[in-house]
Specification:
Layout lengths: L1 H44 L3 H22 L3 H11 E10 L5 E5 L1 H14 L4 E14 L2 E15 L2 E16 L2 E18 L9 H6 L2 E2 L16
Parallel strand pairs: 1-6
Antiparallel strand pairs: 1-2, 3-4, 4-5, 5-6, 6-7
Helix pairs in contact: 2-3, 3-4
Length: 227
């Protein structure tokens, strides 16, 4: 009789002990799965090499579109721009004299770029991008890049522009695109080959090599753009 009572006391204790152990194991597994899930979610939001490469490629995309317009192919330039920017992207240029030009949408910007290139008589352009810096902060992505652009006026004359692009980048339908771009130009200069003139000295020819042509730069006024 006494043994039965002892067994009756031991069995509930054993069952209670096992249930506590099982409960602890279940809680531990749940915690691991929860933390692991949170970690994977956080890791997915962090930048990776593939994302940075895709974002960086946007700078080349814009250069290719602009240079297509530079050689006179406006439709190709517009098509390329659509791969670089969101549909309602805002693009602004700030010129060295402080004036600005803003457009809404890539087609409007392409028309503005084309009017500038044709107005200045450019037959070809080449845009080189460098010092590209991409930042992921507080759920937002920004990118800055340096510009060195060559604009061909003739066989002996080019305009050279230098500046910085500042971009806001978003992911749209699984693809990274620029939603806002601001170009801050620091200079716009003309470089010309010296002319051969027997009545002048070699030194004067050398001095004629470079001149500031900012006063000759044609920046057309267009409806739909801010001045």
């Amino acid at each position: 009789m006494e043994k039965r009572r002892e067994v009756g006391r031991i069995v509930p204790k054993a069952i209670s002990f096992l249930l506590n152990k099982i409960t602890l194991i279940v809680l531990a597994v749940s915690l691991v799965l929860f933390v692991g899930g949170r970690f994977e979610l956080a890791s997915a939001s962090e930048p990776n090499a593939e994302a940075k490469l895709e974002i960086q490629q946007l700078t080349s995309c814009y250069s290719l579109g602009t240079d297509a317009i530079g050689r006179g192919n406006l439709p190709e330039g517009k098509n390329i721009y659509r791969d670089c920017f969101t549909q309602n992207a805002i693009l602004t240029a700030i010129f060295p004299d402080g004036t600005t030009q803003t457009s809404y949408g890539t087609d409007a910007w392409a028309d503005f770029v084309n009017s500038v290139f044709r107005g200045n008589g450019y037959t070809a352009t080449q845009h080189l991008m460098g010092t590209i810096n991409i930042l992921f902060k507080n759920g937002k992505v920004t990118m800055s890049s340096y510009l060195h652009a060559t604009h061909k006026r003739s066989e002996t004359s080019i305009d050279v522009a230098n500046g910085t692009y500042e971009d806001e980048v978003v992911k749209e339908s699984g693809r990274w695109k620029i939603s806002k771009r601001t170009l801050k130009l620091i200079d716009f200069l003309n470089l010309s080959s010296p002319t051969v003139d027997s009545s002048t000295t070699n030194s004067s020819n050398t001095n004629a090599r470079s001149s500031n042509s900012s006063t000759n730069f044609v920046r057309p006024k267009m409806s739909g753009f801010n001045q």
